[in-house]
Design a protein that fits this description.
Layout: H1 19-22, H2 28-33, E1 40-43, H3 45-57, E2 64-67, H4 85-97, H5 99-111, H6 117-124, H7 131-141, H8 147-152, E3 157-162, H9 172-179, E4 184-188, H10 195-198, H11 200-213
Parallel strand pairs: 1-2, 2-3, 3-4
Helix pairs in contact: 4-5, 5-6
């Protein structure tokens, strides 16, 4: 789809000093691992991290793409298209007391409303993330706010959302279009929070097309 392109996947929680322990969306160590001049693409909380790094790099970052990413995951008086704080706190407490059950519920919410359904949820459940890492990234998710990063970054932005997402309200697309009017904000019809796994080829085509549109020949 993008001849000559090199795709690298970075885990924000790998290495001797993972980002969730630094209290920052992206640590200096992680930023150094991401190639200079790379387009930044992130799903969910990874989209917040990508936005933060794009703002840090400024003109040195050619573009930003987020997938199912709410710039502020928990609701506030000035950002209501998000998860209520009480609901988020209950989820965090559930993970603390019964992590396996809570992760199963999370995977079900990730795929709720989409075509992947239970089969995709079971597939997500095959991975067993480190419990301490999950707790730390949950704590970060509860306080992260990437809105100013999105406003500060002046390069091309594509933000994709699933219309059936049970974790990120579809109304965030409208609010984001107001926050960053120059950004491209689109809805994946019938997509869940895991829409990138439900039809990866279609999502890849859209992302590739956007990159081509904003890459000089």
């Amino acid at each position: 789809m993008l001849p000559g392109a090199e795709i690298r996947v970075h885990d924000l929680h790998e290495g001797p000093h993972p980002d969730h322990l630094s209290g920052a969306p992206v640590s200096d160590e992680t930023a150094a691992r991401v190639a200079p001049g790379a387009w930044l693409v992130g799903w969910s909380q990874g989209g917040q991290a990508a936005a933060h790094l794009a703002a840090r790099r400024g003109a040195a970052c050619p573009g930003l793409v987020t997938l199912g990413s709410n710039p502020r995951f928990t609701a506030s008086t000035d950002w209501t298209a998000a998860m209520p704080v009480d609901t988020f706190n209950a989820f965090c407490e559930g993970f603390r007391t019964n992590p396996d059950l809570t992760l199963s519920r999370f995977h079900a919410l990730c795929t709720k409303g989409g075509p992947g359904g239970r089969a995709l949820a079971r597939s997500l459940g095959e991975t067993r993330p480190d419990r301490a890492a999950c707790q730390a990234r949950l704590a970060l998710l509860g306080t992260q706010d990437a809105r100013q990063d999105l406003v500060a970054y002046r390069g091309p932005q594509l933000h994709l959302y699933g219309s059936a997402d049970a974790l990120v309200p579809a109304s965030v697309a409208r609010d984001l279009a107001v926050l960053v009017p120059e950004a491209t904000v689109e809805m994946i019809d019938g997509g869940s929070h895991a829409f990138a796994l439900e039809d990866p080829a279609a999502v890849a085509r859209r992302v590739a097309a956007f990159i081509r549109e904003h890459t000089a020949p």
